[in-house]
Amino acid sequence: MTPEQINIAITEAQGFRERGGGPFGIYYDKEDDNRYWVSPEYIEGFKPPWTDFDGTAYYSLPDYCNDLNAMHEAWCSLTLWEHQEFRHELQAVIAYAQEDEEPHKGPCHSVCNATALQRAEAYLKTIGKWNES
User: Fold this and answer.
1) What is the number of alpha carbons within 13 Å of residue 83 lying toward its C-beta?
2) 20 to 30 A from 86, CA-CA: which of 60, 108, 112, 124?
3) By the 8 A CB rule, do 12 and 123 touch?
4) Facing residues of 51 across strands?
5) Contact at 8 Å (CB) between 27 and 37?
6) Is the distance from CB of 30 to CB of 23 less than 8 angstroms?
């Protein structure tokens, strides 16, 4: 999956749905909320959040692939059972990435130092939204 596909998939998994296009790109909104997410390339020059004429707040689409804070927010949405599955998926993602690298330092060290991209992949695999294409 591309970084943009990953970011959109996690945003949708967080309960935001595609609302359609507009002057700033694709909007995502939660059914019971009035927050909208837009792709970063459409907000250059703007400092989110900003408001529309009707008071609607706009924020940039989170960069789950590079932002550990955003991934922590996504991780917090998982159930206790999903946290356990996430840990197993993250260990598998890390083990695959370390096959040709330095000797394995142990699962705790690796999980604690996982990148945002590795956490995003494990998150999507945990919730069954990872696409290998």
Assistant:
1) 8
2) 60
3) no
4) 57
5) yes
6) no
Q: Which residues make Cβ contacts (< 8 Å) with residue 82, sequence separation at least 6?
A: 126, 127
CA distances from 8 to 15, 57, 127 (A): 11, 19, 14
Chain segment 95-120, per-residue pLDDT in tens: 877 665 555 555 555 678 899 999 99
Strands of the sheet with 50-51, listed across from one edge: 16-22, 25-30, 35-38, 57-60, 50-51
Beta bridge partners of 129: none
Residue 27 and residue 60: Cα distance in Å, rounded?
9
* Residue keyed to tokens 């330095």: 102
Strand partners, 64: none
Tokens at 21, concatenated: 């296009």
